[in-house]
Amino acid sequence: MDEKICFIYSRDRKHRLAIFRRPSGAFGSVEQYHFTNDEAGLDGWASFAPGTSYYADLDVAKRELVFDVSWPIGDEGFVSAADHS
User: Fold this and answer.
1) H-helix or E-strand containing 3?
2) pTM, 2 dp
3) In 15-39, which positions are buried (b, 16+ CB within 10 angstroms) versus exposed (e)?
4) What is the CA 40 to chain-centroid distance, rounded?
5) Pick from 85, 48, 82: which is nearest to 68 by CA?
6) 10 Å Cβ neighbour count for 74?
7) What is the dihedral of CA 56, 69, 19, 11, to 10 degrees?
8) Is 25 in a helix, a strand, or coil?
9) pLDDT tens, residue by residue, 2-50
């Protein structure tokens, strides 16, 4: 199972990029968006269709992935997955 490592959020906190570590040790990412469904009483994060991304280490993933998002990145930088979900 993939282990979420950290996130980078959009300025409005409605989008984020999740970086995870695969069981093989390689890193990947998935873009997610925040949703609210008042009728069903649901609120949370959903993933866009996953792309294929492989990075040898976390530093390379962080450096490269910020160029893949189409939304403005927030000022806080990468946030540990242990601190936010």
Assistant:
1) strand 3-10
2) 0.81
3) bbbbbbbeeeeebbbbbbeeeeeee
4) 25
5) 48
6) 15
7) 140
8) coil
9) 888 999 999 999 999 999 999 999 999 999 999 999 998 889 999 887 6
